[in-house]
User: Which sequence fits this backbone?
């Protein structure tokens, strides 16, 4: 019998015991709706679980019972004693089947039609009429003796088998005891009671009906059923059963369930999780105290405490393991549903599937187990549904017809590894590519630059499914991203390896338990901190003459690590321990930390070993500090703060946006592939601008530079072209040639003077670090070197303050404030945001993006100000119309003009938009219109202001 | 207000009064303060503290008290008393508030006083606003005044 079934039996027999008690209570006080709800719920649960386990017979009985209870609940049926008896009978039948189930491992054969029929009749109200007289003869406790003879009369003539039962009635208690002692030998004995109870109620029913012939028929019918059942039950059991019959019936009111609580799984008791949690906490404390003691005697070999301490240590370790074990469950528990699912899938799809499960006994924390159950199921389904091919395709591919999905679980260094592997078709990169492009997650050019494995990782993105057709199993594209986020939620990771034609392997790595974590102890300015080991990728020692060096861009330190730029956060600065740490001078360590897809380095002075720690929440008054996830007591008894890598990542991953006119840009258009001109100007640092913006590269003879209106200009193609410097005030040599990047728009030209043009490259642009310096968008790794990406818009407005002023070139727009306009872009499509924000940024707007109305409103609540909001209409959650209303109804944004952007262009739609408060409505297909509208709107604003 | 007077002088003074409450008195910067005795869990001598960077300045650090982590509050700073961090050994009073333990670092522990409610008075209206917030009232002792601190308010950090 599998664990699932065992749990089910234990649970159900408990529920039944409670049901007995509750029902009797209910009979006494039918007006108590709470008891009734309780009963109903219990019955419902039993029904549900039976259905789930495929126990058809049980389910039917429970269902019929539930119907009657439902009528009680709805007040359609009054809970007469007769009705209650019937329910009790129903419960007895369930118990009887359960007993057999426990013994045989499957449902016994049998016919419940009659019982179900009566329950149904009861539910329909048919048997209700007799309530009036029924109440007199209720199967009461007070007069069991009155009933008993009746039972005998009714049955003994018919069923000689029952003979011995009559004798035993004299000493029912002993019989019951005997039964208890021989529990293991005859587990069915429990089922005995039902028959009696059933008979009691039947006889009652008969009596109530008061018509003998009917009763005879009924009894006859019942007996047939009864006999059929008896054939399946050991005779001895039957004897005891009959004997026990009256006793429980009599006890029903008093002791109820307790007496019959012969749990099918006596070796286990159920303990509330709270108790276990408390135990766990106490053991954790004990471990800490033990560590504390050990630390004290360390190095003192002569200590008389040494020996007892060692013993204490051992016992503590055992105890810890023991208590941990109470929370541990075999991972197989999470797999139990899978064979069935795979089987059903095989039948449905006509595939041949074999599910192999290895390491089902591997144990992990119950809490963790619960959390990975669904992701696992989802992945196995995926493998069966998408991974494995149809038999004929497999044969054609030279594989055996039978597709194998294997699940393997094992321990590895404090983690559990679960592998889901199939030998199916694998992921076809081509399909993923097409899909990626179709959904706009990346462009073709970007994909060209990716490895096969990188492309495959796209399946973890939201809204992605490669199934050609959406089956009812999978293919809705809400899968792997959820799987991944679930696993990451518990500090796990998921990896994918797939070879087309050979199959795919998913590897999930999860921590064994969430209660005790292993942490790396680091030191910074004499203070120690713990960093959860799980997010630590590696440790790098940095010193001025080691191969790992720190480069500083714009006051931002970055570490060049295997040709990647790793942003660095120094704990000194983060925790305000030492603001002016010079990262290039001294020796220190970098803890390479990973949070989700983010990698960053935490700079610390010293690294100690790892320790097992119990995370305790920080005091309430400290919770607003985002960098601590908790604190703990170390082996030496000292308190240590646990750093929260998530908190730190949030702090550095999203550069703080200052409200007002701060020069900070939020640049979300990372990960675009573009041609860049890399050059040097005003210093050694590499700089780059997008090639698309540069009209030409010219060499300008410095001798031709003239000065007019305090500005350097050259005559170029019949126009005066102002020259701009990256570093203001840079003196020009009066001779020689200089490279100039020429930008043009309409009739205007401007030249950016550079020292040296290094290269023109086509690079997958990753802006790793935002920048707060004017004129720099951010820093990217270009050709393996850190390069500042120049914000051309900033320099062009230096040349012509009205460069972006639109067509009115000659108009005196110089009065327009140079302050860059802040535009908030709201769209649920990240892609669209990415597309639009660089365009706007390059046009000189400060662009802030929000992936939905909620995020946007959150910005408002944070006190952000914008000059204009551009919003999509069709967004999940709050749509654009509601968003516009929300913006204009209250808060600081009441007066901010809004422009709608939508793929819908129906007139009614636009009208609705205007009603909602949008001043303009721009179709998404015509983005250029947006730019015009933006300019116009903001200009209007400028004039108004 | 005279400082440094022996609070013991007050002990037993009005013992016959209607209802009495017990207080633990202590000194911070020569001012006499009191906490309801029932609020006090423990009195500790100097212990090593773990500094908590970025914590409010009044939080002196955290320490381990028999396996529980408690937050140490620099009472002097909290009460905006200027007095220098003297080298004299500090004591601290452990109080429990909303199931979290805190210890208030003080200069010197006084006595357990049994005080009659008759001697209790509301804060004088002219008391420093910062102190008025933290205090529930003042006890008139013989020769001194004891300011009764309100633990909840003392530990409510608003930053």
Assistant:
């Amino acid at each position: 019998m599998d664990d699932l079934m065992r749990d089910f039996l234990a649970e159900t027999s408990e529920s039944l015991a409670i049901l007995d008690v509750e029902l009797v209570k209910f009979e006494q006080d039918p007006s108590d709706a709470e008891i009734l709800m309780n009963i109903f719920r219990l019955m419902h649960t039993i029904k549900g679980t039976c259905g789930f386990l495929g126990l058809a017979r049980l389910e039917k009985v429970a269902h019929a019972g539930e119907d009657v209870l439902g009528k009680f609940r709805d007040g359609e049926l009054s809970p007469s004693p007769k009705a209650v008896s019937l329910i009790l009978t129903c419960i007895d039948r369930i118990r009887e089947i359960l007993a057999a189930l426990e013994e045989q491992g499957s449902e016994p054969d049998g016919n419940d039609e009659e019982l179900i029929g009566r329950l149904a009749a009861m539910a329909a109200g048919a048997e209700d009429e007799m309530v009036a007289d029924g109440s007199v003869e209720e199967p009461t406790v007070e007069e069991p003796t009155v009933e008993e003879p009746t039972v005998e009369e009714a049955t003994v003539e018919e069923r000689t088998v029952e003979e011995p039962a009559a004798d035993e009635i004299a000493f029912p208690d002993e019989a019951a005891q005997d039964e208890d002692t021989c529990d293991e030998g005859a587990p069915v004995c429990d089922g005995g009671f039902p028959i009696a109870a059933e008979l009691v109620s039947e006889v009652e029913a008969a009596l109530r009906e008061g018509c003998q012939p009917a009763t005879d028929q009924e009894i006859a019918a019942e007996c047939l059923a009864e006999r059929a059942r008896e054939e399946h039950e050991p005779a001895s059991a039957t004897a005891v059963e009959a004997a026990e019959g009256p006793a429980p019936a009599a006890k029903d009111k008093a002791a109820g369930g307790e007496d019959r609580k012969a749990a099918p799984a006596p070796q286990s008791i159920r303990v509330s999780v709270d108790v276990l949690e408390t135990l766990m906490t106490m053991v954790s404390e004990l471990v800490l105290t033990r560590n504390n003691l050990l630390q004290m005697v360390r190095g003192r070999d002569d200590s008389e405490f040494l020996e007892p301490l060692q013993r204490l240590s051992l016992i503590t370790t055992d105890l810890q393991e023991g208590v941990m074990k109470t929370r541990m469950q075999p991972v197989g528990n999470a797999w139990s549903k899978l064979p069935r699912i795979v089987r059903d899938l095989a039948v449905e799809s006509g595939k041949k599937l074999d599910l192999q499960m290895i390491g089902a006994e591997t144990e992990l924390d119950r809490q963790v187990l619960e959390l990975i159950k669904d992701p696992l199921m989802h992945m196995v389904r995926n493998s069966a549904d998408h991974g494995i091919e149809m038999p004929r395709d497999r044969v054609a591919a030279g594989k055996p017809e039978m597709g194998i999905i294997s699940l393997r679980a094992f321990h590895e260094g404090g983690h559990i590894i679960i592998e889901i592997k199939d030998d199916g078709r694998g992921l076809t990169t081509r399909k993923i590519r097409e899909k990626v492009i179709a959904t706009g997650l990346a462009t073709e050019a970007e994909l060209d630059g990716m490895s096969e494995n990188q492309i495959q990782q796209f399946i973890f993105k939201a809204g992605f499914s490669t199934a050609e057709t959406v089956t009812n199993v999978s293919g809705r594209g809400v899968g792997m991203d959820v799987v991944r986020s679930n696993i990451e939620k518990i500090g796990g990771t998921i990896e994918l390896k797939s070879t087309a034609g050979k199959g795919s392997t998913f590897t999930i790595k999860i921590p064994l338990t969430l209660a005790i974590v292993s942490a790396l102890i680091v030191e910074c300015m004499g203070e120690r901190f713990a960093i959860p080991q799980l997010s630590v990728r590696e440790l790098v020692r940095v010193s001025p003459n080691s191969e790992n060096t720190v480069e500083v861009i714009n006051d931002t330190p970055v570490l060049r690590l295997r040709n990647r730029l790793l942003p660095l956060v120094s704990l000194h600065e983060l925790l305000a321990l030492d603001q002016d740490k010079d990262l290039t001078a001294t020796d220190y360590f970098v803890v390479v930390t990973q949070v989700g897809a983010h990698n960053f380095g935490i700079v610390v002075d010293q690294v100690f070993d790892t320790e097992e720690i119990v995370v305790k929440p920080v005091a309430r008054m400290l919770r607003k500090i985002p960098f601590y996830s908790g604190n703990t007591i170390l082996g030496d008894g000292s308190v240590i703060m646990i750093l929260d890598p998530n908190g730190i990542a949030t702090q550095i991953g999203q550069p703080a946006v200052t409200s007002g006119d701060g020069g900070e840009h939020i640049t979300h258009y990372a990960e675009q592939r573009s041609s860049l001109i890399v050059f040097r100007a005003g210093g050694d640092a590499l700089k780059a601008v997008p090639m698309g913006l540069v009209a030409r590269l010219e060499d300008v003879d410095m001798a031709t530079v003239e000065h007019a209106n305090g500005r350097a200009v050259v005559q170029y193609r019949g126009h005066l072209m102002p020259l701009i410097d990256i570093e203001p005030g840079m003196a020009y040599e009066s001779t020689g040639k200089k490279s100039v990047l020429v930008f043009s728009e309409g009739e205007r030209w401007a030249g950016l003077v550079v020292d040296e043009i290094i290269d023109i490259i086509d690079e997958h642009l990753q802006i790793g670090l935002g920048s707060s310096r004017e004129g720099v968008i951010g820093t990217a790794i270009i050709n393996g070197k850190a390069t500042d990406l120049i914000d051309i818009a900033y320099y062009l407005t230096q040349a012509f303050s009205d460069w972006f002023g639109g067509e009115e070139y000659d108009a005196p727009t110089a009065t327009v404030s140079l302050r860059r306009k802040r535009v908030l872009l709201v769209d649920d499509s990240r892609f669209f945001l990415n597309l639009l924000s660089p365009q706007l940024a390059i046009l000189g707007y400060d662009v802030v993006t929000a992936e939905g109305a909620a995020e946007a409103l959150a910005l408002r609540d944070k006190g952000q100000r914008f000059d204009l909001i551009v919003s999509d209409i069709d967004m999940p959650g709050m749509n654009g119309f509601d968003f516009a209303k929300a913006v204009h109804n209250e808060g600081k944004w009441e007066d901010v003009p809004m422009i709608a952007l939508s793929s819908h262009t129906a007139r009614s739609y636009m009208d609705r938009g205007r009603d909602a408060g949008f001043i303009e409505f721009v179709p998404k297909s015509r983005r250029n219109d947006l730019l015009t509208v933006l300019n116009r709107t903001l200009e209007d604003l400028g004039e108004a202001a | 207000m005279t400082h440094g007077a022996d609070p013991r002088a007050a002990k037993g003074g009005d013992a016959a009064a209607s209802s009495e409450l017990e207080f633990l008195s202590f000194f911070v910067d020569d001012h006499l303060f009191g906490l309801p005795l029932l609020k006090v869990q423990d009195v500790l001598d100097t212990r090593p503290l773990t500094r908590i960077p970025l914590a409010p300045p009044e939080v002196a650090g955290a320490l381990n008290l028999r396996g529980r982590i408690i937050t140490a509050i620099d009472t002097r700073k909290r009460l905006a008393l200027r007095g220098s961090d003297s080298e004299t050994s500090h004591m601290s009073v452990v109080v429990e508030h909303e199931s979290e333990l805190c210890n208030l670092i003080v200069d010197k522990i006084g006595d357990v006083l049994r005080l009659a409610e008759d001697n209790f008075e509301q804060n004088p209206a002219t008391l420093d606003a910062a102190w008025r917030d933290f205090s529930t009232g003042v006890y008139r002792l013989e020769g001194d005044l004891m300011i009764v601190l309100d633990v909840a308010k003392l530990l409510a950090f608003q930053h």
Notes: The helical segments of chain B are 75-78, 129-134, 151-154. Residues 1-17 of chain B have pLDDT under 50 and may be disordered. Chain B touches chain A at residues 48, 50-56, 59, 61-64, 67, 69, 71, 98, 100, 102, 155, 157, 159 (CB under 8 Å).
